[in-house]
């Protein structure tokens, strides 16, 4: 079987409440890359249960997450959209990778440290091995490229280490070393309340993020209340250094407008934040609003969303199953 050279896999935690960081850092790129790559996109429910979930809520948020991805422009006639747990090959390869990755490698993962916090002993084993499953998600399709936000960089490095280690342990050139695609002007969108903290769905305050399902009024209010500093905007990006909140808002503006920050600052250099925020709110509403409307429409048609996911899982299994079969052969498992 010839190996793919331009195949993408990426994943997102199942939630209908995706935020602007998810969108600008990754999901918008998923949509754009569909034109050029063979794409597999999944809602990672196996990853979601590494922290406790309510069953009914997980089911609903998986369906809503899929509706949101479709609303953003993931197109099932171009890409394979599916739910991770519907393709058992991910978990199977994940186990094999648990037997390749080293404890020392996982101990270095900053996301585990952040998510487990002070209660490390109480975190699930699943949360600890989260990155090995993520490597399996990618490599079970022999994906070559992975569009993600900047926060996933370390996980992608681990994925390459696992691929390389598997190949050299088994004396094969089976897995590719996938490349992260970290693209655009907003690869790390920060909290609207604290320019040092990442915009995140788990932040307690809803005012730290813009959700893709927020109403226009709420978006405007959140941007108006976003933290800034007392200085006017600088005339060029150098003036944003050591001004994290200003830098974040300019980055968001640039990404939404598809312009470079330097270009945006040509228009706003010397302006007060009040004027800039007004224009940013208008721009954000114009970009987010149609997605929210389409998401609501799709929520009213759950049958369609489920059909897309069902068909996506079939197409994903057709690619992943033979790859796991190869891997089992390489490892030395007796065929059934
Ligand atoms: P998740 O669900 O946390 O986020 C989905 C995508 O959004 C990006 N992202 C951000 N980008 C910029 N600024 C932010 N503040 C921000 N917050 C989130 C993330 O980088 C991600 O690309 N581990 C992954 C899901 C996953 C995956 C995979 C990704 C599972 N398997 C295989 C790629 C390949 C995660 O939790 O993403």
Structural domain tally: 2
Strand content: 5-15%
CATH class of the largest domain: Alpha Beta
Biggest sheet descriptor: 3 strands, parallel
Order of helices and strands: EHEHHEHHHHHEHEHHHHH
Gross geometry: globular
Q: Please give the radius of gyration in angstroms.
A: 21 Å
How are the strands of the largest sheet arranged?
A: 1-2-3
The overall strand count is: 5
CATH architecture heading of the largest domain: 3-Layer(aba) Sandwich
Note the gap between the termini: 22 Å
Query: In DSSP terms, counting alpha (H) and pi (I) runs of 4 or more, how many helices?
Result: 14
CATH topology of the largest domain: Rossmann fold
Uncertain parts: none
At the fourth CATH level, what is the homologous superfamily of the largest domain?
HUPs
What is the share of helical residues?
40-55%
Bound molecules: tryptophanyl-5'AMP
Mean pLDDT: 97
């Amino acid at each position: 079987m010839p190996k793919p050279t331009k195949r993408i896999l990426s994943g997102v935690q199942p939630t209908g409440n995706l935020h602007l960081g998810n969108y600008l850092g990754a999901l918008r790129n998923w949509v754009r890359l569909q034109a050029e790559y063979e794409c597999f996109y999944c809602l990672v429910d196996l990853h979601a249960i590494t922290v406790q979930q309510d069953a009914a809520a997980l089911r609903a948020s998986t369906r809503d997450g899929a509706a949101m991805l479709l609303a953003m422009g993931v197109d099932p006639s171009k890409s394979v959209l599916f739910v991770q747990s519907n393709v058992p090959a991910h978990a199977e390869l994940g186990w094999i990778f648990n037997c390749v990755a080293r404890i020392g490698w996982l101990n270095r993962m900053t996301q585990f440290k952040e998510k487990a916090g002070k209660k490390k002993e109480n975190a699930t084993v699943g949360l600890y091995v989260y990155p090995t499953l993520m490597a399996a998600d990618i490599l079970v399709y022999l994906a070559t490229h992975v569009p993600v936000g900047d926060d996933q960089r370390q996980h992608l490095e681990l994925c390459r280490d696992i691929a390389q280690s598997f190949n050299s342990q088994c004396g094969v050139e089976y897995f590719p070393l996938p490349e992260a695609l970290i693209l655009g002007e907003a690869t790390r969108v920060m909290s609207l309340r604290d320019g040092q903290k990442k915009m995140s769905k788990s932040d307690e305050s809803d005012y730290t993020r813009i959700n893709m399902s927020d109403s226009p009024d709420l978006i405007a209010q959140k941007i108006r209340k976003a933290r800034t500093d007392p200085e006017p905007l600088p005339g060029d990006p150098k003036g944003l250094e050591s001004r994290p909140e200003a830098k974040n808002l300019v980055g968001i503006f640039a990404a939404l407008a598809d312009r470079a920050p330097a270009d945006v600052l040509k228009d706003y250099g010397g302006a007060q934040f009040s004027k800039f925020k007004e224009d940013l709110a208008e721009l954000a509403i114009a970009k987010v609003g149609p997605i929210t409307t389409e998401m609501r429409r799709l929520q009213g048609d759950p049958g369609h969303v489920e059909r897309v996911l069902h068909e996506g899982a079939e197409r994903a299994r057709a690619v992943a199953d033979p790859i796991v079969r190869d891997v089992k052969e390489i490892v030395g498992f007796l065929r059934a």
